[in-house]
């Protein structure tokens, strides 16, 4: 059997707060909450979740890996506003303004993008 993706791990200064933010953004829930690990996912049987692990230092520099999120084209701007209301902020990472994505940062400064729907990217 080939190896498979289990969790995406995000270092966090405030594990519970960042996990709650991402659970709200994705419509997921907290599956496990321990002192040094918080796991979120759509449900216990989901093939992949996000795990938050503690770090003492604050984020510095641009992420080397980030999440791309998507929604229906008609809902994209409303979803961006919803995520901003949850605590995200717009980010400038050198975009030209003509991109098919919007760059945001979560409450701890981790970049992520809201991209156009996948069906518009393929084909």
From TrEMBL:
GO terms for molecular function: lyase activity. InterPro entries: Glyas_Bleomycin-R_OHBP_Dase (IPR029068), Glyoxalase_6 (IPR041581), VOC_core (IPR037523). Residues 4-117 form the VOC domain. Keywords: Lyase. It holds the Pfam family Glyoxalase_6. The keyword Transmembrane helix does not apply. It comes from the Bacteria. PANTHER family: CONSERVED PROTEIN, HYPOTHETICAL FUSION PROTEIN. This is Putative enzyme related to lactoylglutathione lyase. It comes from Streptomyces zagrosensis.
């Amino acid at each position: 059997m080939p190896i498979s993706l289990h969790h995406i791990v995000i270092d966090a200064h405030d594990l519970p707060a960042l996990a709650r933010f991402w659970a709200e953004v994705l419509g997921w829930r907290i599956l496990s909450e321990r002192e040094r690990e918080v796991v979120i996912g759509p449900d216990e049987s989901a093939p992949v979740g996000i795990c938050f692990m503690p770090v003492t230092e604050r984020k510095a520099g641009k992420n080397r890996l980030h999440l791309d999120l998507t929604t229906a084209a008609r809902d994209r701007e409303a979803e961006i506003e919803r995520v901003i209301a949850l605590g995200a902020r717009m980010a400038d990472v050198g975009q030209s303004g003509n991109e098919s994505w919007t760059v945001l940062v979560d409450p701890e400064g981790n970049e992520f993008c809201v991209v156009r729907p996948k069906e518009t990217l393929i084909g």
